[in-house]
Specification:
The chain is flat, with a radius of gyration of 20 Å. It contains 11 helices and 12 strands. 39% of the residues lie in helices and 17% in strands. With 306 residues, the chain is of the alpha/beta class. Strands 10-9-11-1-12 form a 5-stranded parallel β-sheet. It folds into 3 domains: 105 residues, Cobalt-precorrin-4 Transmethylase, domain 1 (3-Layer(aba) Sandwich); 84 residues, 3-Layer(aba) Sandwich (Rossmann fold), CATH 3.40.50; 94 residues, 4-hydroxy-3-methylbut-2-enyl diphosphate reductase, catalytic domain (Cobalt-precorrin-4 Transmethylase, domain 1). Helix 4 runs parallel beside helix 5 and helix 8 packs parallel to helix 9. The structure holds iron/sulfur cluster (SF4). The site of iron/sulfur cluster (SF4) has 15 residues, from helix 1, helix 4 and helix 8.
Length: 306
């Protein structure tokens, strides 16, 4: 069996920064660093940090007053920021700088008098944060159907912003529909889809042309991993989202001569190796990696740690 690895895959700079933030906080403050929500959407990452002493909570109310609290890479709402301040928590904000950029963009448009539209998935933590951080009413659209249902008068000054981890194609369709209905709308085009998402999507599209089946390593609640699986499937290749080698089903790969593997931005490379090992238990494998775009983006740690 030939295995081809997409390039780039696995951790992005925002995820590396978020994990480093928790690890540095543990080194500096000792165990009992509290993390609100999964720091990134990956159980293996969370379990590893738990083993080092991080405590994961759903609500700030679970964190003792004045303790160290880390906000996840997805960002938080203003209510959460206010509650943290009220309770005297020592906050380390691991919100990805690219998510913060979208927040700032929303505030800028709102200050210029635009009514705001956010393209994203309802309920995703990043979307919950961005809806609040824009500091103005924001209408969420998820699909072309949602655009058709908008009730803004035709001449409303409108601007849109986007969730960072959507599929470029999905976003393009929604933006096209917005521009068709409201030609005056302004927005950053697809540039808010972050570099890591764009690169991983381009790489899996290329990969899907070369293989019989695609395995996307990532968690089922990881938005960017789910998009990678969708893109591979749109290329006409059976595609499966898998968090580690234990989830590999023999049926998926028993007829495959060439298996493609990629990993979402929140999935550790160790889990890619785990999936390769699982394939190796089914057949003799030969592993190659596609040439791909080299990523050199590095984000600095939050100022309280750097
Ligand atoms: Fe930041 Fe993009 Fe990574 Fe999300 S996927 S954490 S926006 S770099």
């Amino acid at each position: 069996m030939r295995i081809i690895l997409a390039q780039p895959r696995s951790f992005c700079a925002g995820v590396v920064r978020a994990i480093d933030t928790v690890e540095h906080a543990l080194q500096r403050h000792g165990p009992q660093v509290y993390v609100r929500h999964e720091i990134v959407h990956n159980k293996h990452v969370v379990d590893k940090l738990k083993a080092q002493g991080a405590v994961f909570v759903e609500e700030l109310a679970e964190i003792p007053t004045h303790a160290v609290a880390v906000f996840s890479a997805h960002g938080v709402s203003r209510d959460v920021e206010a509650e943290a301040a009220e309770r005297g928590l020592r906050v380390l904000d691991a919100t990805c700088p690219l998510v913060t950029k979208v927040h700032e963009q929303g505030r800028r448009y709102a200050a210029q008098g635009y009514s705001l539209i956010l393209i994203g998935h309802a309920g995703h933590p990043e979307v919950i944060g961005t809806l609040s951080q824009a500091c103005a009413p924001v209408v969420l659209v998820q699909s072309v159907g949602d655009v058709e249902a908008l009730t803004f008068p035709a001449d409303t000054p409108l601007a849109y912003i986007t969730q960072t981890t959507l599929s470029l194609d999905d976003t393009r369709n929604v933006i096209d529909a917005l521009q068709a209905r409201y030609p005056q709308i302004v927005g950053p085009d697809t540039r808010d889809i972050c570099y890591a998402t764009q690169n991983r999507q381009a790489a899996v599209r290329e990969l899907s042309r070369l293989v019989d089946v695609v395995l996307v390593v990532g968690a089922s609640n990881s938005s960017n991993s789910a998009r990678l699986r969708e893109i591979a499937a749109q290329g006409g290749v059976p595609s499966y989202l898998i968090s580690d080698g234990s989830e590999l089903a023999r049926d998926w790969v028993c007829d495959a001569k060439v298996v493609g593997i990629t990993a979402g931005a929140s999935a550790p490379e160790a889990m890619v190796e785990d999936v390769i090992a699982a394939l190796g238990r089914l057949a003799n494998v030969e592993v190659t990696t596609l040439p791909g775009r080299e990523e050199r983006v590095v984000f600095r740690l939050p100022s309280d740690l750097s």
